[in-house]
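Run log, item B.
One chain of 91 residues. Sequence copied directly from the ordering sheet:
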Amino acid sequence: MFKSSDIHTVTDFSRKPAEHIKRLKKTKRPEILTVNGKAAVVVQDAETYERMAQLADYAESIVNIRQALSEKGRPLKDFTSEFEARHGITR
């Protein structure tokens, strides 16, 4: 998923932020920033991040809808009777 050209040191990022921001906006690819040779953080342009967040929300909604549709329902009359009995409601 990540290319070696997407990996940079935090030091390089802090020394040349404008260069990194320009590249992030142009490529729409995230960059992995390393500290002592190990991945520390991932940065990406705001537009791409927002799109990714929207897609994640959409995917979560789909999962929740599918789960709700797969659950067994029951007739309203049965629910109402049980609810009224549980809460001492008489008609």
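Observations after the first pass:
- The mean pLDDT is 93.
- The longest helix spans residues 46-70.
Flagged for discussion on Thursday.
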